[in-house]
Amino acid sequence: MKRKHKGSMLIEVLVALMILMIASMMAMTSAIAANKSKIRRNKYEEANRVAYCIMNEIKYNYTYEEVESKMDNQNSAGVNNKYIGFRYTDNILENLITTNIFQLERGNDIKIEVINDDSNNKIMKMKIAISLSGGVGEVNVEREFNKSWWME
Q1: CA distance 128 to 90
Q2: Which superkingdom is the protein from (predicted)?
Q3: Could you tell me the residue range of the domain that residue 18 belongs to?
Q4: What's the CA gap between 70 and 143, in Å, rounded?
Q5: Is residue 1 in some structural domain?
Q6: Which of 68, 75, 78, 130 has its CA 20 to 30 A from that of 35?
């Protein structure tokens, strides 16, 4: 019968602890990554909802002439594109219900841009771009739509 040395049990315990620490560290890293991914997906989904709400607000609650005049008023000197920018806040969905869209707080998080304007047929092609940066990375949502005279 082979006899164990006294030091070998101590080494076995240290190796077992090291294996447990590596396994628990991998589990914690996976949990942290999954949590960040969930937060990022939630932000993306919320930004997508905001873009959809803004699109429908412009399409069906404003006339073609109102949108065109608001975009012309916001156009900066020297800029060829017509665009308007808003700040993304935590309660923007509530603000869209109660506030005129063109009276929202100005900023660069949400950009509504006129891509093409056919004044003869009263059709305006527009794009909404939402860019959010935070602790979980950058979230970008873009949505294109047409604003036409019959949508009033």
Answers
A1: 18
A2: Bacteria
A3: 10-148
A4: 20
A5: no
A6: 130
23 burial (CB, 10 Å; 0-12 / 13-18 / 19+) is exposed
Whether 94 is covered by a domain: the verdict is: yes
How many domains does the chain fold into? 1
Q: Answer whether 54's CB lies under 8 Å from 112's CB.
A: yes
pTM for this model (two decimals)? 0.79
Separation of alpha carbons 116 and 129, rounded Å: 16
Q: Is residue 126 part of a domain?
A: yes
Question: Using CA of residue 105, residue 107, residue 109, residue 111, what is the dihedral sign?
Answer: positive
Distance (Å, rounded) from C-alpha 109 to C-alpha 94? Answer: 17
Helix (H) or strand (E) holding 81: none
130's tokens: 């939402």
pLDDT tens-place string over residues 106-144: 999 999 999 988 888 889 999 999 999 877 788 999 999
Task: Dig out the tokens for 140 from the structure.
Answer: 């970008």
